[in-house]
């Protein structure tokens, strides 16, 4: 195959060098179409995890589960699958694996039979003391079937000595550290929980008088549900036949949601913490243009995630916005795959230069983030091969200098270009005529603040600043990242 | 499944009501990676046909064929498939079925063993006398294995009494009517042919000194090949070890390429007949704004094909361009399917309103064409549900009032909204506050002309004008469209 | 895998070295369950071909076809497949490929649209002048889509100038040579034909007043149909609403059916030419015991085809019959596969020695035939490894010294052990203490004759005698066996 | 489909009304081809369970697992699967589900990570207090991921407070009741255990100096391994680098192996407890003939399991043995399926009458057992339809009057024909001219005893006698058989 030339610019994958979120969650209580609504909600959240999906429903008598590797639309659009998920309550999960192998037994929601009845849990986030807890559990005689940190939560619930299931659940939450947005289903309740800092998102919606918990508003929009409010940081909500009840089992803390939801993860049509993601991204482009607009003929967005910032940049700078890179929509099923080998193989033929807008022009490429820089250099070369006179690269977020441990799949720190290179070195690496990033203060301005408040920053932003807001217990220990002693392919 | 409500606006498919092209073709002569290049070329041409794909290669001893239902990337990205296609020459084909069922035996290229050696043919277009010819062939004892009109060409070649294969091929061309761009492979030659009016496109490219024939320049770009020239109307080119030779077996006629390649089919980064498709589409938006720009707050393109015209419209009208409709990129394999039933089932959850850009605003929706109007009314309703104050609908092409018989999959005439409704009736049907189409003269102005020359129009434009440039022999006869007496599912 | 040791006796495949028939046919006229009956009939005939199966049905308006690679039970037990085959008449075919690649377009029944209406044909046998005819047809402008000799018959029908379809069919039969049992379906008729010598079998049955044509009586038994009579050699029967009509278009000849149907191919519960196959095989064992019973302790049949002869041998010789070799019934789908590679891979673990019946004993192995001898030597070694004191090998048919050209998949002559080795050399090759074959006269005695009548032999028996009953036209010419110039995998 | 007539005798499944064993186990220690040997061993044991199979191997660093639904040969004949199972030790399991749904998470071997290292377990048998133990474990905070009773053993091991893994394992064995043959793999040991009465079989073999544990000798024969001895009742063997060590952790009891291994389950070429299964079955036929041989013309075995007894019956009675029923070997993959629906659908067309041996004759049908009698009545009718003058039915085992709880899949007691009908009622039910069973004493005589010793019976024979040799704890409690609250399809 001609693809063996890894530098062939006409066949590059602009998504290969982005960050990846691991999960989306959805739960609904008391609706006759619970499983179908969950499937649609998961489909709207597909950008948060493409590797696997699962739904657990509950009818009067028992729980029902369907879990599949692959896209929601590939499996849960089948009416027979939905028919195997009866009941008026359901929770669902999209998975992108940060921890644990890609095997079916890791696909969430996970389920445990408890003395007081069963419980299913779906989790977005990452626990920073999961390995430490897991080691303790195994020592105490627990059997771990998956390699997922979600199972740790279930074991903590199972081993709690409190009689009520909700007390057991709160007990378990008090032992875990890190970032999480959880939805859990018991025979009579739908439970939601958000970590004490509210790092991962969780919102409350309503459809036909039924409550919904999910990661983003776009999962409400797809089914015509109303947005009610964001779940607060450290809040546990219990939805049952008696309505909704809220607990605050943690000491009060100021919320610090993850700023990357705005920069990259959330869908542009979602509203996060009260702000339109699309508007915020346009603002990032505006701020970026104010900080570093070059003289140029045309603004070219890196599709598709660079488009809103490029519109903002164009409007602020007055330089015309053009689709200088065309995306091929037909790429089969190979879009995102867990192994590097598969990525290289089939994923390359996705974008091409729109020569008529590039040749002989000074262009400004606008992208939302830069991780390793490996695709950025290919795209700069693609622009030059298409005849660009000058290529200026602008990033609508600050340099990513630190790894994440809260559920974002970042490379090891030494592979982050900005962690090991100066700005000029980065410019040379990607081969642009100029390179500029949005400043951290510019990012906060795009969010509506004066700048970053060093003492009380409004967001979790360690990737740009190194300021981790929770202890990193597992990292401190000598525990290997992969504890499991068994390997299984599928 | 909740999808049973067919009017649910949050779950509509903007591509369900567009026209569909039937084919893309590609051929290369004398290159060691002939099959791999063909696979990449077909992938770049995937927008021209998603139902099936095939490649036939030729090595010193024999022909090799691989034909598959589904996308190019799903099958021909597999190195083992390419390895089964040895040889330095190959032709390939993407199929969207206008004639004939979706079964493997209809997938092109088709092949026939001839007395003088075998011949494989791939065809983009539609013959307007295929059924008439087919009936005559069957009467004479020919056995038709497929229901494709391409097989008719092969039979005409097989039955010609001329000794040289190229003379047989030219003989066959003289019997067929309609639109075609053909690539054919014989043991020692690659042949290309374009119909006497040049309705369907065919271009000549070059890579590493080897000649390439294909439908669009984007198939050259993906492999880094150079564009040489368009094949002329009525031209037959013969590529062999002795280089390239050109025949003109028809009486000279003025070229009339299909204008729909510019309006909808060709990829925006392709250059057709010397013009950038992207630029032409932006111009259509500019002309449309000149003719009918309303007072409004925001221009919203129908993704993705309405984007270039919306950029032009925004620039000419001064109204800001915003992504008011967001496309969900994760839709599994169900994007385009041959039966209506399958379309309804799995294809719906593709777009959503970006409420922050719509609510409380006067919006202008810009689309490239309107066929039945069934999705347009859904999108207008989606905009109103998202809170739009006014919804103005603008089409960057004239009303489609006539069916096509040259390879575009148009509905029967009575199902074309513009064929049976006045402008005001159409506005009411789709529920917009105002509706306007680009004029036919405006369309020609966007192409660089003063307007349409009624006596000598530069393009085949019967869909807008009813001016069919060739006889429609089959239509005149009483032959049923589907002649085949055998049904087979796969 | 441990299987790489090709000589491992505990993992051998006793069916790897047998002859293979190529086809079974079935047709029914005027029954409401035509396709389902055909599927059941083909299932009963599965032993005649396991590679592919197909059914064509006819309702009032058109033909319907379903063709599949694999076993009948794997595909045609699906009610949805049967539902796609409406109509009151149907024909079907099981394929074992002697000519042509294993690709879907070679799977029968084949179909052609004719001027007078369509015709589907299913064929058991082999034409000895197919390649010669095919070359002439291609020269005359015919296009061959398959590499099957059945297509030649269809072309001859299509090109005949006679107005009535039955006359065209008879015309075609007059041009072909070799062995055939054909069933054909036209819009209003079911046609059967048997070659002038009656080499391949074809019988007439009846169910609920409807006529059935098929290869063996077991296909009647499975659906509870009655056997009516064997179709005569050189007879053409036409079944229509007017009942059944018989033609005899050839000069009268004495019948010479293939003796291998009795020796190996037909199912033991079938009655062929009025004789029970099971009884005949027992008689072969009786004759064999009369000719060459050794002193021994136990008779061990090679399962399963050696069992009837072993019972006869045991009864005649008085030596007890025991299951000394046990068949493992669980071998997945890998039983018979077209390539040698696949055979080696997964097919081996099928039989094991029943040590308690072998150890310390003098055993007589009874098998129905010996082709290459490669599995016979393995089985002798398996017996010795299990502790046999003496191993005597007895074959219930004469030495196979000549290849077949009438539809039996025999190896090239030089690979037939008996064609190149003396009896003593064969004994040494397989490592037995003694070896004996049934004599040709013994074989005829088992059939109820005095012996073989050299001047007017009652059966086609060239494999044992070299006496080919028809011209071998293709063999005389220089035509390569594989004419097709195109290769396609599936 | 014509199959809707459930009584159609030509399409019946003789295996639909037999008892089913649940499992076969295999383990090997210290061999370079450990996984491949295990795959071959499981293939030889395929008759003990066809629903799923799994292998766990151990190399220096970790465990590796592959588990699949379907036959061993369908999945583990693939070299790539074996390559994913590196290491010199492995255990494997064939499953027929008596407890727990057919889902991948129930497929054995099961695995648990323990504080002292991991442990994988494969189990043949059934625990009679598993549900009681499971309820206690869940109350104590354990999470059960499967619905298999094997997981209970793993939890007991995990929760034991003993430091050494072997002591934990023995502790666990002391808590369980019922029948079991276990093989377990730890990082450095292969462990085998057989229940205190030795109800389920487990034997020790040897290949190239390496120890093997498995269910039957046929699994040794397939790989050329030597039989060493049967594991004793209540024995635990530990195989490690230091050789083999034997523990006897239970109070001494006399062995009582399950007599059904001889009657039906074990392969005829296996040697169980020192006796050839084939010989024992022939003896059962001999004893049966002594007890109840009628005047008749022919002995017809029900294939394949009735054959050895029929040979014995024929020899003792002097009535000739003939294959009066022919098995069709081509039945696709549908042979045994877990749901009744699937069984009915595709499994029917398996046997046919060999009319030439039946018509006009007095026949004796010999079968190995009678459960519900539903297929027996079909086969009697099939014989009569084929023209039998008299049909005498003989069973080579006593009437089955009691259900099993030790790993044999028996129907509820009220569905056992012999539990609710007199001999004469049974004869009328199946429609035979006479009916007789082997007596219990006759069964013991066939095993080499004088008869059954009521005080100290040598075998577990409750199915014939109601004499259950262990407490049935779960049955006494009110626990529902299916405890799991979650349902999942695959």
UniProtKB/TrEMBL annotation, chains A, B, C, D:
Q: Where is the active site?
A: 23
Which pathway does this chain act in?
Purine metabolism; IMP biosynthesis via de novo pathway; N(1)-(5-phospho-D-ribosyl)glycinamide from 5-phospho-alpha-D-ribose 1-diphosphate: step 1/2
* EC number, UniProt record: 2.4.2.14
Question: What NCBIfam families would the database entry show?
Answer: purF
Reply yes or no: does the keyword Magnesium apply.
yes
Keywords annotated in UniProt: Glutamine amidotransferase, Glycosyltransferase, Magnesium, Metal-binding, Purine biosynthesis, Transferase
- Reading the lineage from the top rank, the first entry is Bacteria
Residue ranges constituting the Glutamine amidotransferase type-2 domain according to the UniProt record: 23-242
Name of the gene: purF
For the keyword Transit peptide, the answer is no
The family line of this record is: In the C-terminal section; belongs to the purine/pyrimidine phosphoribosyltransferase family.
Give the GO terms filed under biological process for this record.
'de novo' IMP biosynthetic process; purine nucleobase biosynthetic process
Q: What is the reaction catalyzed?
A: 5-phospho-beta-D-ribosylamine + L-glutamate + diphosphate = 5-phospho-alpha-D-ribose 1-diphosphate + L-glutamine + H2O
- Identify the species of origin: Chenggangzhangella methanolivorans
What enzyme class is recorded for this protein? transferase
Q: What is this protein called?
A: Amidophosphoribosyltransferase
Its function, per the record, reads: Catalyzes the formation of phosphoribosylamine from phosphoribosylpyrophosphate (PRPP) and glutamine.
InterPro entries with a match to the protein in the record = GATase_2_dom (IPR017932), Ntn_hydrolases_N (IPR029055), PRTase-like (IPR029057), PRTase_dom (IPR000836), PurF (IPR005854), PurF_N (IPR035584)
What this protein needs as a cofactor is: Mg(2+)
Taxonomic lineage is:
Bacteria, Pseudomonadati, Pseudomonadota, Alphaproteobacteria, Hyphomicrobiales
Instruction: Offer an example of a GO molecular function term for this protein.
Output: magnesium ion binding
The entry's Mg(2+)-binding residues are 305, 367-368
Cofactor: how and how many bound: Binds 1 Mg(2+) ion per subunit.
Coiled coil spans: none
């Amino acid at each position: 195959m001609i693809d063996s030339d890894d530098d062939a610019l006409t066949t590059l994958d602009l998504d290969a060098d982005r960050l990846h979120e691991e999960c989306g969650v959805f739960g609904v209580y008391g609706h006759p179409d619970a499983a179908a609504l969950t499937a649609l909600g998961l489909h709207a959240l597909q950008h948060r995890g493409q590797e696997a999906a699962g739904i657990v429903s509950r009818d009067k008598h028992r729980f029902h589960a369907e879990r599949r590797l692959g896209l929601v639309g590939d499996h849960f659009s089948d009416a027979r699958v939905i028919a195997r998920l009866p009941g008026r309550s359901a929770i669902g999960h999209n998975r992108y694996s940060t921890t644990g192998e890609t095997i079916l037994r890791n696909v969430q929601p996970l389920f445990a039979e408890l003395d007081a009845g069963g419980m299913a849990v779906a989790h977005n986030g990452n626990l920073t003391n999961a390995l430490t807890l897991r080691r303790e559990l195994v020592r105490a005689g627990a059997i771990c079937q998956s390699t997922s940190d979600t199972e740790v939560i279930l074991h903590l619930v199972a081993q709690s000595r409190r009689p009520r299931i909700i007390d057991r659940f709160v007990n378990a939450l008090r032992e875990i550290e890190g970032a999480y947005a959880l939805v859990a289903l018991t025979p009579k309740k739908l439970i939601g929980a958000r970590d004490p800092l509210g790092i991962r998102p969780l919102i409350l919606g309503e459809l036909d008088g039924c409550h919904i918990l999910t990661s983003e508003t776009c999962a409400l929009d797809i089914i015509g549900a109303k947005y009610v409010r964001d779940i607060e940081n450290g809040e546990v909500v219990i939805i049952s036949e008696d309505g909704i009840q809220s607990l605050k089992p943690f000491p009060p803390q100021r919320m610090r949601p993850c700023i990357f939801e705005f920069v990259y993860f959330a869908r542009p049509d979602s509203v996060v913490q009260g702000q339109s993601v699309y508007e915020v991204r346009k603002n990032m482009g505006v701020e970026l243009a104010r900080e570093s607009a070059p003289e140029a003929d045309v603004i070219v967005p890196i599709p598709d995630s660079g488009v809103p910032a490029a519109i903002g940049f164009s409007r602020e700078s007055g330089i015309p916005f053009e689709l200088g890179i065309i995306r091929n929509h037909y790429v089969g099923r190979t879009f995102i795959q867990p192994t590097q080998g598969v990525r290289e193989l089939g994923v390359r033929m996705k974008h091409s230069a729109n020569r008529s807008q590039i040749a002989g022009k000074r262009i400004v490429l606008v992208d939302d983030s830069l991780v390793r820089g490996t695709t950025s250099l290919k795209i700069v070369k693609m622009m030059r091969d298409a005849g660009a006179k000058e290529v200026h690269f602008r990033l609508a977020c600050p340099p990513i200098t630190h790894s994440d441990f809260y559920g974002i799949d970042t490379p090891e720190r030494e592979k982050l270009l900005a962690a090991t290179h100066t700005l000029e070195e980065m410019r040379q690496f990607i081969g642009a005529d100029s390179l500029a990033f949005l400043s951290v203060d510019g990012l906060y301005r795009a969010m509506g603040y004066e700048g970053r408040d060093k003492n009380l920053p409004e967001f979790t932003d360690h990737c740009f600043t190194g300021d981790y807001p929770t202890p990193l217990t597992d990292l401190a220990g000598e525990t290997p990242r992969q504890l499991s002693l068994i390997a299984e392919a599928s």
